[in-house]
Amino acid sequence: GRRSESTLPDVAERTLVAVKPDGVQRRLVGQIIQRFEQRGFKLVGMKMLQASEDLLSQHYSELRTKAFYPSLLQYMTSGPVVVMVWEGHNVVQTSRTMVGPTNPVEARAGTVRGDFSTHVSRNVVHASDSPEGARREIQLWFQGQELVQWDCCDQHCLRGA
Ligand code: IDP
């Protein structure tokens, strides 16, 4: 977990962010990418796809006993999603803050869900909820060669020593 990572300071944290089908339909992809770019995170993977029920059942395996699970799968397969991997300091937790609480009624203006959604069943985005969850989800959605290692020219400006 976090402890072993902190002994390897140059291994940047990564998270999986997805624009869900409602976000794609509503043409919010650009605005969502913009928020992560301007915050200072580095995009290392991105693709658009129609997610399969099989993939989503693995992604949401912890929720399979919930009453809303069938409608969640229906929603998530209703159209294409845009999945991204973002990298940077504390990117998992910061992304959750940027996305806002699961239920938009609790999401403040300024968060993605607080700015763009009203209903928990159409909450526009996904973001991994822990570094362990992020690793699992990134492996599930991306092949290793789809993730790009590159140097971002402003990286040294984004953190202290
Ligand atoms: P998260 O997306 O904020 O991590 P989770 O509890 O992991 O929240 O739930 C996954 C997704 O399932 C939510 O983003 C939302 O789309 C959907 N969901 C969660 N709770 C409900 C509900 O009570 N009704 C309908 N959909 C729900």
UniProtKB/TrEMBL annotation:
SUPFAM superfamilies: Nucleoside diphosphate kinase, NDK. Gene3D superfamilies: Nucleoside diphosphate kinase-like domain. InterPro entries: NDK-like_dom, NDK-like_dom_sf, Nucleoside_diP_kinase, Nucleoside_diP_kinase_AS. It is found in: Cell projection, Lamellipodium; Cell projection, Ruffle; Cytoplasm; Mitochondrion intermembrane space. Transmembrane segments: none annotated. GO terms for cellular component: lamellipodium; mitochondrial intermembrane space; mitochondrial matrix; nucleus; ruffle. Its cofactor is Mg(2+). This is Nucleoside diphosphate kinase. It comes from Betta splendens. The lineage of its organism: Eukaryota, Metazoa, Chordata, Craniata, Vertebrata.
